Every structure is written in structure tokens, then in C-alpha cells.
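Changelog note: in this version the structure field was regenerated for every chain. One regenerated record is shown below for reference.
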Amino acid sequence: MIQDKESIKTQFSKLNYSSEIFKDKLLELIKRSLEDDKAQDIVVINLKKKANFTDYLVIASGTSQRQVASMAQHLREKLKNVGLANVPIEGSKQNDWVLIDGGDVVINIFRPEIREFYNLEKMWSGELIDSVESGENNIELS
């Protein structure tokens, strides 16, 4: 479902940025943006008990450097539209692996072979809370 920019901004402006509801809505916005841009193998990992720099790690793949760049740019714009004014982005010169720091949610967009090489899903071994294309890879934190 496509919502206009003002509708989304209004919806987010009523929320406390540190609330779980805000984080949940932010995750939904991120997943929807990636899905709309035809990202592949979207995975969300809960890192609340494992890392102190973020609560969630989102990992997705794009089929080319151009698609990775486009997804990252669209996502950055959407994050700014909901009030995250300073959204750092790394890797946008090469577009093999782009990291977007959304604070409580860090997004990694890879080309498939780069994603396979770094294998962040295995490295973090957090609780997999959502896999958009399949629900098979559930990982529990100890």
C-alpha cells in the first residue's frame, strides 16, 4: 500500500522515537521500502541482547550496483521523511555493500556475492524476527 509523504510523516510524528511502537513502525517502513524496490532475501535480526549500537539489523540484497544504490537512496529519503534528519550512509561510492544507520535499525544492502562473502546473518546469530521471503531461518539468542 502506497502512502503519501505527509501521511507517513504525520503517523510517525505522534510517536516517541525511543518507543517500541516507533521501532516497529520503522521496521515496517524499511521492509516495505525494500520490498517496493524489489530487494531479495530481506532478513531482520533482533540484536537487543547482543549489541549496544542498534536494536535491529536489516539485511537485503540487490541484483546490481545500480539497484543497491537506488534502494539505499529511496530508503534514506523515507527515513528523513519520518523525522530521522541525520541518516548516515556508507558504501555509496561502490554500491556493493551499503550501510544505512537508522539508529535503532541498521540496514545493510548487498549485492548477493558480497552478502554471501560477509555472511552477517551467521556473524550476528541474533534472533531472526522476520524473513520476508521465507520463515525458515529462525535463530535464537542465548
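Spot check on this record: The domain at 5-131 is CATH 3.30.460.10 (Beta Polymerase; domain 2). The chain has one domain: 5-131.
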